[in-house]
Amino acid sequence: MSDKMTDDPRVLVSTDWLADHLNDPDLRIIDASWHMDSAGRDARAEYEAAHIPGARFFDIDAISDTRSSLPHMAPQPEMFISRMRAMGIGDGHQVVIYDNSDLRSAARVWWIFRLMGKQDVAVLDGGFQKWQAEERETEDMPPILRDRHMTVQRQAHLVRDVTQVASASKLGDHEIIDARSPERFRGDVPEPRPGLRVGHIPGARNLPFGRLLNADGTFKSPDALRAEFEQAGVDLSRPAITTCGSGITAAVLTLALERIGHRNHSLYDGSWTEWGSFDDLKIATGDA
User: Fold this and answer.
1) What are φ and ψ of residue 140, in 5° steps?
2) How do beta strands 27-31 and 56-57 pair?
3) Which residues of 23-48 are buried (b: 16+ CB within 10 A; e: fewer)?
4) Residue 91: per-residue pLDDT
5) Measured between alpha carbons, how far is 22 from 144 in angstroms, rounded to an integer?
6) Does the predicted TM-score (pTM) go above 0.90?
7) For the purposes of burial, counting CB atoms within 10 Å of the CB of 273, is it exposed (0-12), middle (13-18) or buried (19 or more)?
8) Cross-strand bridge partners of residue 12
9) DSSP 136-173
10) Distance between CA atoms of 61 and 113, rounded to whole angstroms?
């Protein structure tokens, strides 16, 4: 199957597709790179050094719910509108999001746009790594920004809070899918964030997000993605809740679900950073 056959401007597009549309007047490109502190990388500095022509930088930590003590929770609609208008992104734009991150953080920003009711938004398959490997054009100058009107319609069904996830865990009426590594899921190793308990949400299945990707960082075919979910014990006929450490890689699972046509899904925004901090919430250890 060629890259051309995989293009879906509402989910995932190839580097060929983006190169073909790079000069479209209503195309807006976002660099959504994000790294754990332990990576020792500065996403904004890397963007300033080189990015896809016309790309804007989306700071996942800054464009978030500042009222929450949890890291980079989804922003309120008012903040999202304000920041996107300032970045020259508005109604009628086709948005393509990429990252230069091992965590595939572009999926997180894709999910935020979906949460705000935006449909014409896709992730660049393979990200900046693939774009650079193909020796495509980059630049180090920021784009000229012009304010653009934006309206949003928050899709509350796409996000879950701790109370809703606790209910789903107790009732067993959703597939809870955890994108963390098997070692973290089982509780064999400490969590990267200090002070958190180890283990997983009772009833959750483990599907490390990396299993959804090919060696070059592109997503596997829909059939192969479906097989990975099924191999993890996920019943794809049921509603799904994705989770991870802090809501970043859970969005990779969400993107994959959307890619295979599974529409009844939501993301646990607080993820293990929230669940693991509450002593009164039950945890499970070992395999699913």
Assistant:
1) -120, 10
2) parallel
3) eeeeebbbbbbbbeeeeeeebeebbe
4) 97
5) 15
6) yes
7) buried
8) 8, 123
9) ---BSSPPPP----------GGGEE-HHHHHHHHHHT-
10) 15
- Cα distances from 259 to residues 79, 107, 224, in angstroms, run 28, 12, 11
Q: Characterize 198-223 residue by residue with b for buried, 16 or more Cβ atoms within 10 angstroms of its Cβ, and e for exposed.
A: bbbbebbbbbbbebbbeeebbbbeee
Helix (H, G, I), strand (E, B) or coil at 182: helix
Burial class of 194 by CB neighbour count within 10 A (0 to 12, 13 to 18, 19+)? exposed
The answer to whether residues 32 and 106 touch, using CB atoms and an 8 Å cutoff, is yes
Whether the CB-CB separation of 57 and 44 falls below 8 Å is answered with yes
The three-point CA angle 266-268-272 to 5° equals 150
Average of per-residue pLDDT values in the chain? 96
- In the chain (288 residues long), the average pLDDT of successive 10-residue segments reads 67 98 97 95 98 98 95 97 97 98 98 98 98 98 93 98 98 98 98 94 98 97 98 98 98 98 98 96 97
CB 46 within 8 A of CB 112: no
Residues in the chain: 288
Task: Tell me the pairing of strands 159-160 and 121-124.
Answer: unpaired
How much is the pLDDT for 6? Answer: 77
Q: Name the residue among 135, 38, 57, 161 with its Cα closest to residue 100.
A: 57
Q: Check: CB of residue 243 under 8 Å from CB of residue 268.
A: yes
Q: Which tens digits make up the pLDDT trace of 222-281?
A: 999 999 999 999 999 999 999 999 999 999 999 999 999 999 999 999 999 999 999 999
What are the catalytic residues? 244
The residue to which tokens 């999910």 are assigned: 111
Contact 56, 42 (CB under 8 A): no
pLDDT in tens, 7-27: 999 999 999 999 999 999 999
